[in-house]
Write a structure and sequence with these properties.
Blueprint lengths: L2 H25 L2 H17 L9 H28 L3 H5 L4 H14 L3 H11 L5 H8 L3 H19 L5
Helix pairs in contact: 1-2, 1-3, 2-3, 6-8, 7-8
Length: 163
């Protein structure tokens, strides 16, 4: 085994339990907590997360916390999207996949291409406004404008009617 592999294994064995507990507390789901921790370690191994030796434990816990918060935000967004549906759609007996497909179809075909792309980058790919702005060469306020307008149109289209 290489020195890097031994160091990585040692780090994995010493920190996995602590990282898992933190993820489980935030997510309340064993499988998701394990996935989050494994994802952090996979990114660490691939070199996409730079490890800071002076604060390894705190850094890894911060990575886990951030990934959990992203997952929670994604859940919330999915729940909000589901709450935008009209009673007629819900009562029609459509399955969740069909409902999500209707929302995705709206994003892809009814919003402007730029707004749809930005909505997908933010919610599907979990990219920050800053990452989106850098990738597309637009300002943070432009990213915000597209997201706000796109969500407003989705709410107007799929809003729940009061009975």
């Amino acid at each position: 085994m290489t020195d890097r592999t031994e160091q990585f294994e040692q780090l994995f064995h010493s920190e996995f339990g602590r990282m898992y507990k933190a993820a489980y507390i935030l997510l309340g789901n064993e499988d998701e907590a394990k996935d989050v921790v494994q994802d952090v370690f996979a990114q660490l191994w691939a070199g996409t997360i730079p490890l800071r030796e002076e604060s390894t434990r705190a850094f890894l816990l911060t990575c886990v916390r951030n990934r959990c918060l992203n997952l929670i935000a994604h859940r919330k967004t999915t729940l909000e999207a589901m709450q935008l549906l009209t009673p007629e759609v819900i009562e029609s007996g459509q399955h969740d996949e069909e409902i999500i497909t209707a929302i995705e179809d709206y994003i892809d075909h009814r919003l402007t291409p730029q707004t749809g792309r930005i909505i997908r980058m933010h919610y599907d790919e979990e990219q920050s406004y800053k990452e989106i702005g850098q990738q597309l060469g637009i300002s943070l306020s432009a990213v915000n404008k597209h997201i706000v307008q796109g969500l407003r149109k989705l709410r107007e289209t799929f809003k729940t009617k009061e009975v």
